[in-house]
Every structure is written in C-alpha cells, then in structure tokens.
Amino acid sequence: MKFQKLWCKRKKGGLAMTKKVLKALQLVDHDFEDLELWYPVLRLREAGIQVDIVGEKAKEKYIGKYGVPIESDYSFTQVHADDYDALLVPGGWAPDKLRRFGEVLQLVKAFDKSQKPIGQICHAGWVLISANILKGKKVTSTPGIRDDMENAGGIWLDEAAVVDGNLVSSRRPPDLPQYMKAFLEVVLAK
To answer: In this protein, which residues make up the domain named DJ-1/PfpI (predicted)?
Structure first.
C-alpha cells in the first residue's frame, strides 16, 4: 500500500525526490468515545500521516468517556484547513460540544468546500449536520441519530463504512477496521 506521496523537486544537477508529509486534523472535546478517537489517530500515524489534535484550548488534557486522556496540540483558532489534508471528527458525546463552536463549523465547511477527506463516526454526524454539509450525501452513523442525519438531507445507510466523495462515515467501534481502511484509501487517493 502506498503510504505517502512523493514529489519531485528541481535541484542543481537534476531532480531530487522529496516526501510530502500528509497532515490530518483530529478534533477533540471531553467525553469523546475513546476507541473512535484513538484508533483512527494510531492508524493514520502508522501510515506515516501527521495527526494534530485540536480542541478548544491548546495543550489541554481531554478525557474520553472511558477515562483515556489525550492532549491537544492546538486550539480551534490556531489551525487552518489549508494546512491539512484530512479531518477526523470523533464520536461519543464530544460532537454535541464541538458543534457549538463556530470555528469548528467553519473548519468542517472549509474541508468540505475543498473536497478534502472528512471522517466521521457514530455521533460525529452531529458536527456535520450543524455545518450543513450533508444534503444529498450518502452517510451512516449510530442508528440513534439516523433521523437527525436524514432531516439534515443525508441519505442514511446501515453499513460499516460509507464513502461519498470526500466524506467517509461509520456507525460505531466494531466498524473501525472498515472505516479506517476506507478513510485511508480516500486520503491517499488525493
């Protein structure tokens, strides 16, 4: 599997191969679903993709639903969609908090407008609903927010992972292997 894109750069005497490091932005807030945040972060890092953790505050410790912590690298106001190749939104109860930040919604809209990959799992669909980017898109989520996804214009499917253009969605933790396989394929194809 190809993990990184190689770019040619002119240098005196010929061409030199340089590696473009792909960068992903992982949103975070308290009460994220531990596996739904950590599994994607670790899979992307295994693939050689830099993952920055971004929360309301930089260098803040956020605690998952089951007590697993993670520290943010940056705050929402310190990052720009142009500097990243992909976006991940975790599940759990964090999405209900994340969608209340205008900066988060602007990031999601910017990624979508640029057709950069957006990964969302479980309750993460709430953030995409609030960003108003689901109309006409095929998506999945935890069945508990199916009505919310459909009322926002999404076409809800009961599948482990659904890809519609730049959007990759998944239902819940048992679907993580299929979700991350699909997400990595979309990220690496860009």
So the answer is: 23-185
